[in-house]
């Protein structure tokens, strides 16, 4: 005859193993996201030519680019600039992005 305390301990052990498994899965997801983040940071560094950065977070170049031009450049490089899919890679043209980029400045 199994005692109730032993059953509770076995149930607790099973829950702990399930929790550990879930933590391992989340750890794998975090590693993938961190790798993607590092890749995107490198792309931004290459895109903005950080060698001219004076440490303030602003790039000191004679030909400053406007925010709208930066968004257009990102769109042309294959990224969404609309508020729905911002930053995700585009597979085709996006009407939301196009509407945003062609909206009159006001």
Automatic annotation (TrEMBL):
GO terms for biological process: DNA replication; negative regulation of DNA replication. The keyword Zinc applies. This is DNA replication initiation control protein YabA. It holds the Pfam family YabA. The keyword Iron does not apply. It comes from Desulfoscipio gibsoniae DSM 7213. InterPro entries: YabA (IPR010377). One of its GO terms (molecular function) is metal ion binding. Transmembrane segments: none annotated. Residues 9-43 form a coiled coil. Keywords: Coiled coil, Cytoplasm, DNA replication, DNA replication inhibitor, Metal-binding, Zinc.
